[in-house]
Amino acid sequence: MSKRSPSRISRLARLGGLTGRISSSYIGGRVRAAFRGREQRKEALDRLHVDNAELVVETLGRLKGAAMKVGQSMAMAAQTLDLPEDVSKVLGQLHAKAEPVPFDDIRESVEAELEKPLEDAFAAFEPRPIGTASLGQAHAARLPDGTDVVVKVLHYGVERSVDTDLLALKTVFLGSRMLRRERAEVDAAFDEVRDRLSEELDYLQEAANIATFQQIYGQDPRVHIPRVHPHWCTERVLTMDRMVGEPLDTFLEQATPAARQRAGVTLANLYYEMAFRHRTLHADPHPGNYLFDPEGHVSLLDFGCVKRFDEFWIANYAHAALSALDGDREGLLEYVRRIDGWHGNRPGAADVLWHFADTLSQPYRAGQYTIGDHQDSIIDRLKPIIAEMVRYPELTIPRDIIYLHRSLGGLYAIARRLVVTSDWGALLRKHASYAIARAEGRLSA
Questions:
Q1: Measured between alpha carbons, how far is 92 from 117 in angstroms, rounded to an integer?
Q2: For the residues 402-421, what does the mean pLDDT come to?
Q3: HSE on the CB side for 385, CA within 13 Å?
Q4: Domain boundaries, the chain
Q5: Which of 87, 200, 352, 427 is deepest in the core (most CB within 10 A)?
Q6: φ, ψ dihedrals at 115, nearest 5°
Q7: 102-154+202-242 falls under which CATH superfamily?
Q8: Beta-bridge partners for 292
Q9: CA–CA separation, 161 vs 65, rounded Å?
């Protein structure tokens, strides 16, 4: 191929250089801070966070692969890291950083995988990509029988970079002040990311994921799931129906308020159904992974990142959610302990944990609540509480909660743009109660 991904040694050198530059910048920052007042120290640290976020974006955007994917996850989680809002904006640029792979490279990959010339495999294949992401690139095509499809092609060599990239990035985040968490918690988080990445790098696994969602939602009028065309699929090439619909930005320009409402409520119902009923969650809530028709029906795209839950863990999580909804502090603390989110007995940790859960529950207790209107200030109210939580190492993020809350946060961001009104507490209670009843054997399989 004419253009290869950076070699493992080259990637390690770049990421190692990133680690050294960030670590050195914080050491120098601490030295300079000794000669500044409190307010000046805070402003300087905020500026340093932004500068280092820009450095991360610049480096990871060039590397693609696991490094960029992890950086995108960090961008989505930035609010929970007690970083300045400017850092979130900078890291968010990673979602648009992937540069297209030349078509000659795509042709060579597809022909090698399908073991035939491109013209024999497809009636048409559009050279210009319809999307380039950190792990792969998508092209519109047409099968010999006239079916319009999308062909995803894994970036060359990306699977060989995963362990190198994750190790280097873990060092970056541990060696800087971007992650102020215990080593064991960071290790567990990166293990979870590695597991999900390993699945995303196997397109036959993604095809199996699509088959699962077809079985669940194939006849559901609210949502459309693509079909896979297995004769045009390998571990590195995935061919599926091309879905019809508009991306979120276009939908927002054209949709009626009723269509926006339908889309937002559908996305919320799908989230709770997937998590609590099917225990199989479409866990990559980037806006580009959804299309919308004029009536507000939703098409799901990209099934590489799917999180599955043990029925007893999700039932304990449901118990914790309902305890918070019902104002039951002791129940909340007990079930958070059961899902491995709280260790130890310091009263301060219990207080801040309850403060977080109680505040987060307020929109769920409000009856009809509008996400995205001028009164929807839940994120602003949670930020100082999250900043307090990170001071307690016994309050940890269970690895099973990472993608669950990543999806919730991503869908909340979409709902804010749609401006959606519903009784969110009734919605949560219905699906959480189902998960509990299922784990207790009060429902059939």
A1: 38
A2: 93
A3: 17
A4: 8-98+160-182, 102-154+202-242, 245-445
A5: 200
A6: 60, 45
A7: Phosphorylase Kinase; domain 1 (3.30.200.20)
A8: 246, 298
A9: 7
